[in-house]
Amino acid sequence: MSETSYRIEGATGAWEVVIGLEVHAQVTSNAKLFSGAATAFGAEPNAQVSLIDAAMPGMLPVPNKECIRQAVRTGMALDAVINRWSRFDRKNYFYADLPQGYQISQLYHPLVGEGSIEIEPDGDAPKTIGIERIHVEQDAGKLMHDQHPTRSYVDLNRAGVALMEIVSRPDMRSPAEAGAYVRKLRSILRYVGSCDGNMEEGSMRADVNVSVRKPGAPFGTRTETKNVNSVRFVMAAIEHEARRQIDVLEAGGTIVQETRLFDPDQGVTRSMRSKEDAHDYRYFPDPDLLPLELDEAFLAECRDSLPELPDAKRRRYQEGLGLSAYNADVLTAEVETARWFEALLAEIGDDSRAKAAANWVISELFGALNRLGRSLDDSPVTPKDAATLLGLVADGTLSNTLAKQVFEIMLETGEAPDVIVEARGLKQTSDTGEIDRVIGEVLSANADKVADYRGGKDKLFGFFVGQTMKAMAGKANPALVNERLKALLDG
């Protein structure tokens, strides 16, 4: 495991930060964990609540097989141990948005055991972050404090939604490492399809555990900052909380194990409540649910359904297609990008042109979409049309300059490139007779510069190329123009 050199300087010297993350990821499924209620984001309050979610008497939970399947697939993608036998426990506490008076979770026997994620923070050496466990649990509802001047309302739409709690080891040592971990985990979840990773909508959020110590000393007392909902905020919460703890310790104080909240507007953490230990929740096995027992056929189906994951895809792009490390990273970071590029490669059907395709996607397509404020999902250019455009360049029909013109028209109109080329007469000219004729006119009109060139001013060659291309409206084959000019000027 690579160690970071990140340190925070205090009045008494350097301090090291120790970070662990508990990421709650909402499972992509057809219903909630123990009921058939829908889970769509943005529904009217209390519009997606079954009798089970509302804890009506006599309602018994039934595990949603798809939720279990997605959690197992996630564990496999993290190279984690899949426990064939697991059990649900009741975590007992009272809160207004928890109708049952307990949360069904997995404390003692989780569905998924130890795994790992490899990160490369800010281009540093790769580092392996351990995964301690993944357990499935139901979410609570939501209290809304801004709907009435004196009352709080309860929305139970989220009550019973299936969550995977992915618990890391305390292996991270800097905000950058924590940010890289969350980004990598989010990427893997989105590749697998087990969570949409939308942190803004709350379908993925992190509890951030932070402690500080002098380098090499035992772990210090940690605090937990709850429900942080962006990578940037995770990093900011770590930075502030670590500095706060150092200030307390250097002033002679002690760190209290507690739960805190992050205020993104102020960039600070604030105390929420003292940290409860597990026994305070009075965990016990849920008497309404049998243990989960997974057979080999189910595990094999989960394993066979996994897609090519980002690390494997990145290696294939570099080693098999010859892409640069940077291009491979960009094209595999987000699953939508990778799928779009894979579709483009399938349309091209020639791996030898993969480098050119990658360069075009990253420089031309991404630049245009960024300028238009659009994403790949609503790109006006399809992989099929992009492949056609690149093919017209490869076979000499279009020069790079003409290809840029055609691309701009594609962005504006959505037309296919071959249609644009035919309708607007944008084909590249490779007729040497026509090129020679235009070159002759250019040289005749610039006899003085011809004499200067032949007298030793070689840099004038670029002038003649430019004049020739201008005279042919950019449609001349640049390689032929260079070749014929060289022959006619030096002949």
UniProtKB/TrEMBL annotation:
It catalyses: L-glutamyl-tRNA(Gln) + L-glutamine + ATP + H2O = L-glutaminyl-tRNA(Gln) + L-glutamate + ADP + phosphate + H(+); L-aspartyl-tRNA(Asn) + L-glutamine + ATP + H2O = L-asparaginyl-tRNA(Asn) + L-glutamate + ADP + phosphate + 2 H(+). Its EC number is 6.3.5.-. Gene3D superfamilies: 1.10.10.410, GatB domain, N-terminal subdomain. Keywords: ATP-binding, Ligase, Nucleotide-binding, Protein biosynthesis. Heterotrimer of A, B and C subunits. Allows the formation of correctly charged Asn-tRNA(Asn) or Gln-tRNA(Gln) through the transamidation of misacylated Asp-tRNA(Asn) or Glu-tRNA(Gln) in organisms which lack either or both of asparaginyl-tRNA or glutaminyl-tRNA synthetases. The reaction takes place in the presence of glutamine and ATP through an activated phospho-Asp-tRNA(Asn) or phospho-Glu-tRNA(Gln). This is Aspartyl/glutamyl-tRNA(Asn/Gln) amidotransferase subunit B. It comes from Sphingomonas jejuensis. The lineage of its organism: Bacteria, Pseudomonadati, Pseudomonadota, Alphaproteobacteria, Sphingomonadales. The gene is gatB.
